[in-house]
Amino acid sequence: MLIRPMRDDDIGAARALTHEALQRSRAATRPAALPAPPSGPPTPDWSGRWERRAKHLLRHDADGCWVAEADGGSRGGSNVVGVAMSLRREKLWGLSAYFVHPQAQSAGVGAALLDAALGYSQGCLRGIIISTADPRAARRYRLAGFTLHPTIRIAGSVDRSALPVVDGVRTGGPGDQDLCDSVDRRVRGAAHGVDHEFLCAEYGLLVSDTLTGSGYCFVDPSGSPVMLAATSRKIAQRLLWGALAVSPQGADVHIDYLTADQEWAVDVALAAGLSLRTEGYLCLRHMRPPATYLPSGAFL
Ligand SMILES: CC(C)(COP(=O)(O)OP(=O)(O)OC[C@H]1O[C@@H](n2cnc3c(N)ncnc32)[C@H](O)[C@@H]1OP(=O)(O)O)[C@@H](O)C(=O)NCCC(=O)NCCS
User: Fold this and answer.
1) Residues 167, 290 within the same domain
2) Which of 24, 95, 106 should be mutated for ligand 1, with most atoms under 8 A from CB?
3) Cα separation, 255 vs 244, whole angstroms
4) Which has the closest alpha carbon to 188: 125, 144, 139, 237?
5) If you take atom 9 of ligand 1, which residue's CA is the nearest one?
6) How many CB atoms lie within 10 A of CB 226?
7) What is the end-to-end Cα distance of the chain in Å, rounded?
8) What is the Cα–Cα distance from 137 to 299, expressed in whole angstroms?
C-alpha cells in the first residue's frame, strides 16, 4: 500500500470510495455525518459538489490531500482505496474528508492517511474535525490528540407558523467576503478565506451587519444552514431563523454538529418543531467549541 499526494485524476475514484464508505456506515449505524449522500446510487448533485469541493481543496491545499493506493489495480481499474483531504486556513488546520473503502477498512490504511494529512497541520495552533459515529474514526482522532465533543444533530420539517419576523438580515454575495472573514476570526480564530468564494458559488448567503454585531449564514435550498458564524447569540439566532424561513413547505431540514455550547441553536430548532438526536463528535485540538458558530462538514 502506498500513501501518496492526491492528484486531480484521483477525484473520481476518491468520490466513489467515499460514497461506498458512507453507504456502508449508514447501514451499519445511523445516517452518516459529513455531506452525507442520499441513500442509493450517488445523485448528480452530491457527486458534482463533492468533486468541485475536491478540486477546490487540491487547488488551495495540495499538500493536505492524500490518497492510499493498493498494490495492483484490483478495484475495477482504480487502486485508490482511501482518501484524506485537509485544509489550512490561517493558523487553523481542518480535516475535510477521511474515508477508506469498506473492503480495505480496519487494516491500518486510515492511520497512515491521517498521519500524512496531519503533516499539513505543522505550524497550525489549532485543529478541527467533524467525526462520524464510526468508532474507528473517533479512535484515530483521540489518539491524534483531539478532544471529542459529542454532537447534537437536528432534523425535521419547519413549523412555518412558528417563523418569526426576522429583522436585520439581508441576502449576501461575494462582496461580503471581508465581513465573513472578520466574523470568522472573532468567532473561531481563523478566516475561511477562499472557502467563502466556493460556498458563495454553491449556496445562498444571508448576512446580518448591525450596530450591535454581525454574522453570516450559508444556506442550502432546503433551508439547512451549511455554515453560520455570528458575533453574538442574538445575531446567530436571527440568521438561523432566516435560513429556516428559506425552507420550502415540508422540506427536510438539518442542523448539524452542535455541541452543548450552541443552546441558542437548539432553542431555535425546538421552537421550529425540529427533532434532536446525538451522533458523532466535534473534535478539537487547542480550542473550545466556538459558541456562536455552526461548522461546515467540508470546510469546518
Ligand atoms: C474511519 C476510517 C477512515 C478509518 O480508516 P481504517 O483504515 O478503517 O482505520 P485503521 O485500520 O487505520 O484504524 C482503525 C482503528 O480502530 C480500531 N477498531 C477497529 N474496529 C473497531 C471498533 N469496532 N471499535 C473501536 N475500534 C475499532 C482498530 O484496531 C484501529 O486502531 P489501532 O490502529 O489503534 O489498532 C474508515 O474506517 C472509514 O472509512 N469509515 C467509514 C467512513 C467514516 O466514518 N469516515 C470518517 C469520517 S469523519
Assistant:
1) yes
2) 106
3) 10
4) 125
5) 110
6) 22
7) 29
8) 18
Q: Identify the DSSP state of 296.
A: -
Tell me, in angstroms, the distance from the centre of ligand 1 to residue 138's CA.
8
Please state, in angstroms and rounded to a whole number, the distance separating the CA atoms of residues 300 and 298.
6
Q: How far is the CA of 137 from the centre of ligand 1 (A)?
A: 5
Per residue in 155-201, pLDDT (tens digit) is 999 999 999 999 999 999 999 999 999 999 999 999 999 999 999 99
Domain identity same for 290 and 182: yes
Window from 27-31, 84-88, 258-262 with minimum mean pLDDT:
27-31
pTM to 2 decimals? 0.94
Strand pairing report for 170-171 and 204-210: antiparallel
Kind and range of the H or E element at 135?
Answer: helix 135-143
Whose CA is closest to atom 18 on ligand 1? 136
- Quick check: 34 pLDDT over 60? no
- Give φ, ψ of 112 to 5 degrees: -65, -40
- What is the domain range of residue 228? 155-279+286-294
- Do 134 and 166 fall into the same domain? no
Do residues 84 and 98 lie in contact, with contact meaning Cβ atoms separated by under 8 Å? yes
Pocket of ligand 1 (CB under 6 A): 21, 25, 34, 98-100, 105-111, 131-132, 134-137, 139-140
Closest CA to 58 of 93, 84, 38: 84
- Can you tell me which atom of ligand 1 is nearest the CA of 24? 41
Last residue of a domain, one of 118, 145, 172: 145
User: Is residue 78 very low, low, confident or very high in pLDDT (cuts 50, 70, 90)?
Assistant: confident
**Gap from CA of 205 to ligand 1 centroid (Å):** 36
Please give the tally of structural domains in the chain. 2
Compute the distance from residue 87 Cα to the ligand 1 centre, in Å. Answer: 21
Residue 109 alpha carbon to ligand 1 centre in Å: 9
**107 in helix, strand or coil?**
coil
